[in-house]
Prior knowledge:
Blueprint: E1 3-10, H1 14-22, H2 24-30, E2 34-36, E3 43-46, E4 58-66, E5 70-77, E6 80-90, E7 95-105, H3 112-139, E8 151-152, E9 174-175, H4 180-187, E10 260-269, E11 272-280, E12 291-295, E13 301-306, E14 309-313, E15 316-320, E16 329-337, E17 348-351, E18 354-355
Antiparallel strand pairs: 1-7, 2-3, 3-4, 4-5, 5-6, 6-7, 8-9, 10-11, 11-16, 12-15, 12-17, 13-16, 14-15, 17-18
Domain CBM2: 250-359
Protein name: SRPBCC domain-containing protein
Region (Disordered): 195-260
Amino acid sequence: xxxxxxQVDLPHPADRVWRAVTDPALLAxxxxxxxxxxxxxxxxxxxxxxxxxxxxxxxxxxxxxxxPELLVVRxxxxxxxxxxxxxxxxxxxxxxVTVRETVQQGDWSAGQGAxxxxxxxxxxxxxxxxxxxxxxxxxxxxxxxxxxxxxxxxVALMADVARPSTRGRTGWVVVGSGTAALALGLAGWAxxxxxxxxxxxxxxxxxxxxxxxxxxxxxxxxxxxPTSAPPSRSAPPSRSPSATPSRTxxxxxxxxxxxxxxxxTVSTRVFGYTGEVVVANPGATPATGWTVVVxxxxxxxxxEVTGADWxxxxxxxxxxxxxxxxxxxxxxxxxVRTADPVTKAPQGCTLDERPCAGL
Length: 359
């Protein structure tokens, strides 16, 4: 039995994620469009043709569901039959999304399963959080403390989502003055390239040189009593002392010093930012076994990590990685999703329990 899967933590409640998964209009915003199959009740066709790891569109039918915790669907893609399981688990910060797909009939070609798994991961960790942030934005009472609504969000922000309801509601969202720019930033967040901010390196400090004391020349002592001159004799030639060869000092092997780490926020978004920790090895030997721990604000989650292995436990994200070459660096970059539009940096950062620079 062939199985693929992925998992991501999101700072959003399970019911909001469930809505984004089961509403066809919302599903189209972060994964692929879905439409009902004519004359086949309960069947939906998902437009996955062209997505990495897919041979064409997939026809799905629900097998089991328990809102907002579990959804199991049977997928038919040509002659291949698979079962896709979607599990939502509530956490202290939001919820954990686990996706697992198992082949029941047929097979995947070489590398197709890995590409399909990566497609799921990028959709869950990248595009889905952007949509969830937009849904959270709609739920905020933007008219609080204002006299009257003065602006209307353009319908283009959710052209495929804001459908008129059967009760005559238009699907437009009325907001207070000054919030349209915030909503536009949400809509284009996932399409903007990250703005890299190079961390400012500390200027090198010249080593202090301690002056060596110059010994004062010795004074010759002259006797006050004259001495009688000895009888004149031919003085034997004095022997010149042979020069003692100088010894070349044996170089002392360099001892690797402690690693250094510096944090920087390289780009920001409305509900998140991209952080980077650069681990530097100033020593003369490779350094292994290092650990970087970044403490995020409550309700935040990390994703899209490059440069290190990682795990998140509550607010703490632990990074471990390869050996850092002598005089070299190792960069760790990660995205942070947060419901707080103000905070754009972690609460703390340590390298082997020593504080990182830059915070």
